[in-house]
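Lab notebook, bench 4. We co-purified these components, and the gel suggests they stay together. Before we commit to crystallization screens, I want a quick structural picture of the whole thing.
Request: model the full complex, all chains together.
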Amino acid sequence: MTQNISPHRAETILLDHGSGGLASQELISSLFLKHLGNKVLSALEDSAVMENQPGRLAFTTDSYVVDPIFFPGGDIGTLAVHGTINDLAMRGARPLCLSLGLILEEGLPLADLERIIISIRDASLASGVPIVTGDTKVVPRGKADKIFINTSGIGLVADGVEISATRAQAGDKIILSGSMGDHGITIMTRRAGIALAGDLRSDSMALHSLIRNLLAGLPECSIHTLRDPTRGGVATTLCEIAGSSGLMIEIEESRIPVRSEVRAACEILGLDPLYLANEGKCLALVASEVAEQALALMQACPEGAEAAIIGTVTSGGRSSSIHEASDTRPSLAGDPGRVALKTTIGGTRVITPLHGAPLPRIC
Amino acid sequence: MKYVDEFRDPELTAQLLHELTAATTKPFRVMEVCGTHTMAIFRSGLRALLPPDIELISGPGCPVCVTSASHIDAFLQMAELPGTHLAVFGDLFRVPGSNGATLAHARARGAKIDVVYSAMDGLELARQNPAEQVIFPGIGFETTTPGIAATILAARQQNIDNFMVFSTHKTMLPPLMALLGDPALGIDGLLCPGHVSSIIGAAAYQPLAEENHLACVVGGFEPTDILQALILMARQISEDRAEVENAYTRAVTWEGNPRARAMVDTIFEPVDMEWRGLGTIAGSGLAIRKEFAGFDAQSRLSITIAESKEPPGCLCGQILKGITTPPACPLFGSRCTPSSPIGPCMVSSEGTCSAWFTYGNNTR
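Here is the predicted assembly.
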């Protein structure tokens, strides 16, 4: 086969790069190993073999298809590393390693790919979680949107760590590790080409160090549930926890941190920050007696500096803060499995999961 | 956040609620005309705090909800014509037409449809894609129409001839006249739409107040705005007055915005218009004038507008008229939810059913 342009000199991804032949090898060595290389990955074996370590394994996978691929505060590469690390951390696992699967669209500028791979390297180095295995495919132009990434992750769960949505208990306090909505509103405004004043940035961030500090600093089994409120936002995640645990959740609007730029953008677009995606935040449900200690531990980490206690888990039934409803009004009963919000002005409303994608309003 | 937090102040709210309770000397029924009011009342939690003597009824003021099934069918037809590219408001995307199909379904089948934030974005799309016919389905009341009129004027100025509007624009007063003339509805007060009023002016409600003996108060959309409007209304009702008052003076004047109205008059002329659930109301719609026929999708494309068929069992018509509330509908919360809406009131975030489902009682 003759080659007019040497693939490594090409400025864009070609179908050849996914052929498994010389062009693929060139891409692997000149780009992937150059930036991501480590003892396990650089061996280029068919699978990574890891030393056995005591403990239970946590295993997760996630795919990343964001548009635009670059945005203030991160890019698709940082999301792919942070998102999978966070999914491991939310079960109390210490992340050990990640896989990296790339689906590239023919014509993707190589400079863009390199920028993403450098982001992945930086995120991987900063979090101390190596990429140990990978794969690349190239599809014809139009069959994918620039780049799709899948990462899987393996982590270790120490003895005594039992974290799950089903372990939420009545009386638990709910801590949010920082401001909500930053990622979702950044992506929506970029996608729509809406220029708003103020610094809108994705919160893409790995949370495993914060969780490690929390686990180390609190009595065993006092953290009941951890969840990262990604798509669907804080509202949908809390609804899932209420559903899994069969308990009721009450949160207070005035206690939930939202940056003023995010609030302003939401007001303009008719969106509710409770439903916007976050990529560097977690919700922690902890026993009430350790809540203040957990909050202090979070606030001592840079990832949780703006953490706040936003609500409480109850066993359901009508609580004192829920307004008694009359026949003609919507019932605001504090039913088990549901989430209620005490609004800034002192009213109460029920929170439901996100239905469909959030769409901006006409007026 | 400035200009928002002041109007959501808990202490001020408590004080206004106290004043409202004192001013409410007898039970009364209020129609909040505008979907944004419906949503704001639910979302702020205000509904649960109001004195029990005040009954709130949602009116026909959600632009998506009153778009007839036949018009949605027409939008779907246009989306499937070769070479067309639709630019639509986000909340139109999931509204079902007469056979349940939506623009979201059409896009999945390959139609070119983009969600835009204003008609001007649609014009930009036309500029960037000269080989396509970009069509903007025009929906909405006096609030959105001036923006559409300005876009058509801009398209003419810039000689962009592949941009069209399919107008289903509506005006607010004719349906209110029709609805409120019915004494069976038993409405005592009208919470007049703040945004529409910024264009038509508070004076526009004078005939409604006089002919139907209605306390008409223009209100803003923050909790304290709404409370202030309700206080003025409660005082009118307890003193048996029926006047137009303006509680939203920071946005609305007595005469409104004559410049915007003149721009609308340049482009559009009144026509009879079909409203979902309400039927055809004389002179309640706006069609593009002949002088601007080049931008009128209805005159340029051969689109057949069939008679609307409402989904069986759907009570949106009665809900839009304020005759019934969403939980009375057999479909509400069971077969009809925001994820799979059957009637239009469930689709828009400002629809009455969606507001009840999302913020209120979502089970029957």
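Confidence is low (pLDDT under 50) at residues 1-8, 318-333 of chain A. Worth comparing against the SEC data before the next meeting. The radius of gyration of chain A is 22 Å.
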